[in-house]
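The aim of this short unit is practical: by the end, you should be able to scan a pair of folded records and say something sensible about each. We start with the first protein, listed as its amino acid sequence and then its structure tokens.
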Amino acid sequence: PTWVVAAVCLVIVSVSLAAERFLHYLGKALKHKQQKTLYSALQRLKEGKIQEYCCVNLSIGIIACLINRTIQLRLLLITLS
């Protein structure tokens, strides 16, 4: 069903945004406490891993939408037959 695909996409996007916000505030806290080594490690992590994670999430969302459209088209064709 369409609503299930939408719910899964919503969960994936929500978790991604929450993780990004958490890392943002963690970076602010590290910078404020002058923990330069941990802050630079966090920046390197964000630059590499988070970008890969976001690309994977975006790909999953696009694939889920394509699957949803395919199912809708098949149901429409079955209904019209």
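Turning to the second protein, read its sequence before its tokens, just as you did above.
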Amino acid sequence: MPPRSSVLQRLAAALLVGGLVSSAESAGARDAAAGRIDCFARSYDAAHHAAHPAQAVETIWLGHTPEAEADRPTGRVDAVLGFGFRLGGEAYSGLAYCRSLRCEVEGDAGSFTLLRKGRSMRLTVGPHLSLEGADGFSPDLARSADDRVFLLHPAPAGTCR
């Protein structure tokens, strides 16, 4: 298994090589490449939900999980990342297989794209995204006007487990 930092290192390298990160943002991408950022997350408080009443996502996270790396198809993906969110108190999660900036979630659960924004990561929901939880599948985030784009910030690694 590659070192823990190599998953986000490959992703950060793809972001830099793809030319989608400005020189000002590249310092944040270098942090990820150096293994200093292993988890991106965001929790939304009551004030945020009051300003965005159509948003259902309460918490969202994206990060490296060592056990997921063992499942990485050689040569077909740059990174395997754990991904999940919380809606109505229930957690939904899955594995995302990323090639360059586009990530496909296992089990035909949908897709999203990533873009570095300084030290943060912008996650944009694709045409479909619905993850599995303990009692079934989440609503499709692509059908919600306020659950399509998320700006995730560096977080402690335990947040993404």
